[in-house]
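Inverse folding, one chain.
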């Protein structure tokens, strides 16, 4: 009886397989990064819109003021900046002589912390201004200074960048969140030429 001939891969065949895998990875990795960055923007935008809608509904249900402010600590308002990617809080308080747009203070009677928006490292979120956003007892936004409406712009940051403005590109477009005078909240895709700041 003749013995069976066992044959393995030749060096040439192995090299062809490695080249094919390398080509597939070169195509797949950038696409995966693009999809991941798009999902970061979508997730952050949906969270902010959800929290604004929640604040509006709570204001009407509680018959109280419900405010949103930038907060890097999750325990107090910081109106010195416009980057909501540092985090924000949603809180309720009684309609009183002090009026709307009050900064959160845990020791103030009747002031209740409702939600804490976490800091974002993969997405920048720039607001029109750092002023407190407040919904009145009817669910309508309360003017703050000369501002009656508010915009936020969210853009994905480049890989390895955790601070500063993100980048708006045709592959990974940013999004504009608009809070209207009626209390409606909507998001739209940024134009390719748009910058990642709100106005």
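Residues assigned per position:
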């Amino acid at each position: 009886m003749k013995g069976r001939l066992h044959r393995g891969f030749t060096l040439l065949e192995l090299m062809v397989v490695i080249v094919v895998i390398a080509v597939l990875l070169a195509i797949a990795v950038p696409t995966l990064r693009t999809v991941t960055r798009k999902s970061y923007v979508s997730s952050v935008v949906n969270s902010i819109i959800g929290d604004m809608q929640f604040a509006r509904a709570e204001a009407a249900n509680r018959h109280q003021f419900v405010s949103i402010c930038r907060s890097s600590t999750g325990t107090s308002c910081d109106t010195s900046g416009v980057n909501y990617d540092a985090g924000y809080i949603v809180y309720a308080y009684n309609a009183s002589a002090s009026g709307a747009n009050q900064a959160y203070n845990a020791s103030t009677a009747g002031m209740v912390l409702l939600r804490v928006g976490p800091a974002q490292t993969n997405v920048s979120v720039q607001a029109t201004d750092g002023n407190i956003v407040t919904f009145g007892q009817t669910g309508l936004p309360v003017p703050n200074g000369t501002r009656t409406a508010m915009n936020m712009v969210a853009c994905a940051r480049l890989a390895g960048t955790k601070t500063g403005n993100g980048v708006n590109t045709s592959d990974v477009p940013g999004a504009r969140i608009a809070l209207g005078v009626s209390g409606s909240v909507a998001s739209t895709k940024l134009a390719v030429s748009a910058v990642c700041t709100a106005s």
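The first strand starts at residue 65 and ends at 70. Helices lie at 11-62.
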